[in-house]
């Protein structure tokens, strides 16, 4: 466990790493930002802002997760490829992730300089990991219960949701390795709310240590999601505190990457957990020691 | 007593703040520059020394079985110089009487080796890393082997009458002398002023703190005019009230360099000039980093 090493881009991380992946959407209709970074200049400003706030990774998405107008591969590329290229030029050392399930989009963004393919729909396009292997890129495997991309879960039940998550993620990770993605470039994500009701997402959070124990780096995407909203009966826009509580629990369980909207608050929570866990020294210590 | 008092070529005073210790470091220094200032001063004070006598107080709030904080701070700073020398540790009770401090000071640099009622001593050897011929520092080294090694190298505790302290070069910038060139004894005194200097200070504000602290700083500043004698005027009860943890070590220092009443005639008193004095109180505790050199 403590021997875990994973690599993103040219950087290497270990089991004690707690990284912030900031969400920047190139969409007019995502649930949280509602198109705030749809304009290209606004998106560039947002990238600069999250980098300044200490984000380790930026995750670019060209299609919102929820159902809506169909966006073809060409339209998706139009939203993200040139943007990734420009980001790469402006931020040579920034880790760039792209949230896509399409292999053709994955190829285009890797050519443009992206480091990570965030396959948020659980291997819906089996060629995606092959593209990642070809470019020596990292890939994020996610558990969706096998649903079709951009659908909401409806009346899904599992005998044991964690068992389903583990089985699916291990299979996807093993396949990624088998097609040539380096083992230390494979990340697993239980994908809260994807193919899951709130009970499922809560159980995945509660039992996240079982996922960490598999020995792959674990990504969690908790930010402002419905399982937080339903837990606290709060609408989008009032879920930050709940998100941060779930973040702290996930960090204590040992998750490594946190895909978030709020970088500053997340960074503070992760650093606080790292300090409590003894993985990071406090920033500055004088109390009782002067 | 033999009547021989070893030549103290250098005196260095450093704070005893635990935040100087590596085990308490955060990601950034709590008091930026303080550790560097201490190491610089200690290095300048020991680079011509073959022997170091550490004077530190016992902990005022002992809760653990660890060595006193002052001892650990001193050892950390000495190790950071990457120089080699033998070390004596002299521990003085933080609340020792002035008389006890005087007595301990007399034997601290003298030939008398037995422990005294108010304090205790232990010995160890520091060596620069990478020097295979010299044993690395190990606290609690067998005292007799340390003593034998010191004897083999010649008398570190030379008589005051005959010893000429080799103080060539500039202490701050000069190259460290080789071991054979170094023959002096350095006193490393771990001592703080009051911890009640401000509202936010560990002991809250006591308006009397500034006066006592000023007296300590003035005594060091006027060392060339016999100012160290005035350290003996510090009142133990008042200093205890003000959480002046350095009072007893400073009084041992004063005695060790010849202040106070003497029962034997050891010749002319050595005068000391101030080479460095940094005073700060970032947390409401008076920190003094001072380097005094014998005026030859």
Secondary-structure arrangement, i.e. CATH architecture of chain A: Alpha-Beta Barrel
Question: What topology, given as strand order, has the largest sheet of chain B?
Answer: 4-3-2-5-1-7-6
Q: Can you say what the CATH homologous superfamily of chain B is?
A: LigB-like
The count of domains of chain B is: 1
* Rg over C-alpha atoms of chain B, rounded to the nearest angstrom: 18 Å
Major sheet details of chain A: 8 strands, parallel
Query: In which order are the strands of the major sheet of chain A placed?
Result: 8-7-6-5-4-3-10-9
Number of helices of chain A: 10
Summarize model confidence as the mean pLDDT of chain A.
96
Q: Determine the number of helices of chain B (DSSP H or I, runs of at least 4 residues).
A: 7
Find the count of extended strands of chain B (DSSP E, 2+ residues): 7
CATH homologous superfamily designation of chain A: Dihydropteroate synthase-like
**Class per helix and strand makeup of chain B:** alpha/beta
Question: Helix-strand pattern of chain B, N to C?
Answer: EHEHEHEHEHHHEE
Plain-language structure description:
The complex is a heterodimer of chains A (290) and B (296). With 290 residues, chain A is α/β, with parallel strands linked by helices. Chain A has a single domain (5-277), classed as Dihydropteroate synthase-like (TIM Barrel). In chain A, 40% of the residues lie in helices and 15% in strands. Chain A is built from 10 helices and 10 strands. In chain A, the strands form 2 sheets. In chain A, strands 8-7-6-5-4-3-10-9 form an 8-stranded parallel β-sheet. In chain A, strands 1-2 form a two-stranded antiparallel ribbon. In chain A, helix 2 links the parallel strand 4 (57-61) and strand 5 (95-99). The radius of gyration of chain A is 18 Å and the shape is globular. Chain B has 296 residues and is α/β, with parallel strands linked by helices. Chain B has a single domain, classed as LigB-like (Protocatechuate 4,5-dioxygenase, Chain B, 3-Layer(aba) Sandwich), CATH 3.40.830. In chain B, 26% of the residues lie in helices and 19% in strands. In chain B, helix 3 (98-108) packs across helix 7 (247-256). The longest helix of chain B is centred in the N-terminal third of the chain and has 13 residues, at 34-46. Chain B is globular and about 45 Å long. Chain B starts with 7 loop residues before the first strand and ends with a strand. The interface between A and B is medium-sized, with 10 and 18 residues. Chain B: Residues 114-180 are annotated as: Disordered.
């Amino acid at each position: 466990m403590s021997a875990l090493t994973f690599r993103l881009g040219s950087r290497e991380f270990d089991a004690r790493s707690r990284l912030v992946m900031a969400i920047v959407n190139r969409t007019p209709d995502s649930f949280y930002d509602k198109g705030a970074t749809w304009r290209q200049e606004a998106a560039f400003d947002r990238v600069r802002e999250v980098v300044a706030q200490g984000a380790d990774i930026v995750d670019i998405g060209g299609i919102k997760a929820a159902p809506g107008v169909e966006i073809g591969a060409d339209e998706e590329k139009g939203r993200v490829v040139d943007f990734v290229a420009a980001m790469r030029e402006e931020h040579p050392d920034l880790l760039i992730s792209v949230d896509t399930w399409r292999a053709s989009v994955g190829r285009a963004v890797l050519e443009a300089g992206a480091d990570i393919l965030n396959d948020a729909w659980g291997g819906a396009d089996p060629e995606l990991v092959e593209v990642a292997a070809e470019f020596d890129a990292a890939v994020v495997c996610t558990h969706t219960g096998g649903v079709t991309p951009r659908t909401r879960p409806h009346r899904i039940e599992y005998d044991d949701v964690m068992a389903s998550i583990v089985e699916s993620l291990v299979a996807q990770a093993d396949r990624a390795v088998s097609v040539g993605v380096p083992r230390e470039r494979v990340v697993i994500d239980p994908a809260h709310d994807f193919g899951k009701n709130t009970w499922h997402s809560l159980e995945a959070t509660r039992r996240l240590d079982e996922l960490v124990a598999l020995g792959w780096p674990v990504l969690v995407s908790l930010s402002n999601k419905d399982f937080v909203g339903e837990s606290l009966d709060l609408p989008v826009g009032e879920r930050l505190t709940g998100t941060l509580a779930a973040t702290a629990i996930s960090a204590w369980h040992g998750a490594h990457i946190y895909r978030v909207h709020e970088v500053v608050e997340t960074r503070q929570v992760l650093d606080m957990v790292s300090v409590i866990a003894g993985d990071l020294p406090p920033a500055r210590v004088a109390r009782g020691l002067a | 007593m033999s009547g021989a008092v070893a030549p103290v070529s250098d005196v260095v005073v450093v704070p005893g703040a635990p935040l100087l210790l590596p085990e308490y470091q955060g990601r950034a220094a709590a008091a930026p520059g303080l550790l560097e200032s201490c190491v610089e001063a200690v290095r300048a004070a020991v680079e011509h020394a073959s022997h170091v006598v550490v004077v530190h107080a016992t902990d005022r709030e002992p809760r653990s079985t660890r060595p006193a904080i002052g001892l650990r701070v001193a050892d950390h700073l000495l190790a950071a110089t990457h120089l080699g020398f033998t070390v004596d540790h002299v521990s003085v009770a933080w609340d020792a009487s002035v008389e006890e401090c005087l007595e301990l000071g007399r034997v601290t640099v003298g030939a008398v080796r037995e422990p005294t009622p108010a304090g205790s001593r232990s010995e160890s050897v520091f060596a620069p890393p990478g020097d295979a011929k010299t044993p690395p520092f190990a606290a609690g080294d067998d005292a007799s082997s340390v003593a034998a090694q010191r004897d083999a190298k010649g008398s570190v505790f030379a008589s005051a009458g005959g010893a000429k302290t080799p103080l060539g070069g500039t202490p701050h910038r000069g190259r460290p002398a080789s071991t054979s060139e170094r023959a002096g004894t350095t006193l490393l005194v771990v001592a703080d002023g009051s911890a009640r200097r401000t509202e936010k200070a560990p002991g809250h504000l006591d308006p009397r703190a500034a006066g006592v602290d000023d007296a300590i700083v003035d005594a060091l500043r006027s060392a060339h005019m016999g100012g160290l004698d005035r350290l003996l005027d510090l009142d133990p009860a008042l200093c205890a009230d003000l959480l002046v943890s350095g009072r007893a070590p400073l009084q041992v220092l004063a005695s060790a360099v010849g202040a106070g009443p003497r029962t034997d005639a050891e010749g002319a008193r050595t005068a000391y000039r101030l080479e460095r004095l940094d005073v700060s109180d970032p947390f409401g505790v008076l920190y003094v980093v001072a380097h005094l050199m014998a005026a030859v």
